[in-house]
Amino acid sequence: MAVKITELINIEFIQELQNELSEISGMAILTTDPKGIPITKGSNFTDFCAKYTRKSLLGKKKCHACDVNGAREALKKGKPCIYFCHAGLIDFSAPIMLGNEMIACFVGGQIFNGNFNPSEISKKAKLFGIPENEYLLAAKKIPSATKEEILKKSKIIFNFAKLISQIASLSFNLKNNIEKNESYNMFLTSIISDINSKTVSALQRKMTQEKKLLQEKDMESIKKTIKKIVDDDNSLLVNFTDIIQLVNFSGSMEQLTESEYNVFTLVKRIEADCAKDKFDDISLKITVSPDVPDFLLGCDNFIEDLAHRLIVSIAEHIKKGTVSVEVLCKNKSYAKNLCIRISGGSRELLEELNAKLKKFLTTFSTNGIDLSENDKVCFTLLNILIKKLSGHVSIEEKNSKTLFNIEIPQVEVKLEEL
């Protein structure tokens, strides 16, 4: 793959996150590439390491080897790697991944495990050609901690390494999709532009909680802080509404390939999708109007996903009863508009979904709208339907029912054309 993390994530963002993590953990941190070459400036490096050891030709070589070996071990074990460096300090490493490939690594630590041995420091000073007294004075300034304390702190950093991996994966997928289809550039640019600032602010909130946890003493306070961290973990990406919309959009782009399909087969697939959801008190009724052609040319995978998610949204709101789906066609001069009308329960039961969808259709943004995971994807698909596929979405009140209508232009395929 040979992808550099700096091609996917702004280096200033990585540096800022690294500085915050170093401040919280009280440990030195550096971000390296897979070969152990630094891509950021070290945060809170000790003079012992930065001013002396790494300034020595031999010391720098040994530090580099430790960084590389630490990253490899973290990759192999899939968890934070705690180890003693060549100079006798405790260090850690946490890999940043793109798929199965390590594209960067957080390394750091620079902490003594208890008191240091002056004679060993003196030996190192002679080996590296460093003034012995200066090296010993620098060693005395190095903080100490137990291996357990360092492990606790490094796990926090490892969690952020995993989050950076997710952001890198998102950026990689977007980059590929943009290269595949330049027509999406305008849609994506506005969202990409503020991904770093939104991520940083959310991470800073989370890191404040992590820092508080390290300082808590009584068990009840620890439990409350852990709950806040867990809640924040669950909502971190959910709060980035534009980013989530982008993820959903990029994942849906694969569905936009047009092909010939049988409408009745499509209906069977939608029924099968809904059957997997196991709504015990919900029944599904799909009818196909006689005016619908047997075969159409269009994005059947996209239609399947959108219809399925809208059905699930309605089922989640009405809790029990029947969700009715009517498939019909409207003739247009250039194509057939495949129409799917979905309803269920009473108007009152769907009032909340109705209001959320109307708000979304006004702004085309999920900002400020409390949505389930299914609804986020569903609304994003509706956005694609309208903006990219010349589709139409409407809400109709009829006979105490709320009808959700989606229309998408398709081309009729005659039997002789198959």
Topology:
Blueprint: H1 11-25, E1 28-32, H2 47-52, H3 57-77, E2 81-84, E3 90-98, E4 101-111, H4 118-128, H5 132-140, H6 147-180, H7 185-192, H8 195-215, H9 219-239, H10 241-252, E5 259-262, H11 263-275, E6 282-288, E7 295-298, H12 300-318, E8 321-331, E9 336-344, H13 351-363, H14 373-388, E10 392-398, E11 401-412
Parallel strand pairs: 6-8
Antiparallel strand pairs: 1-4, 2-3, 3-4, 5-7, 7-11, 8-9, 9-11, 10-11
Helix pairs in contact: 1-8, 4-5, 8-9, 10-14, 11-12, 12-14
Plain-language structure description:
It is a single chain. This protein has 14 helices and eleven strands. By secondary structure, it is an alpha+beta fold. The strands form two sheets. Strands 5, 6, 7, 8, 9, 10 and 11 form a seven-stranded mixed beta sheet that branches. Strands 1-4-3-2 form a four-stranded antiparallel beta sheet. It is elongated and about 90 Å long. It starts with 10 loop residues before the first helix and ends in a 6-residue tail after the last strand.
List keywords for this structure.
single chain, 418 residues, alpha+beta, seven-stranded mixed sheet, 14 helices, elongated
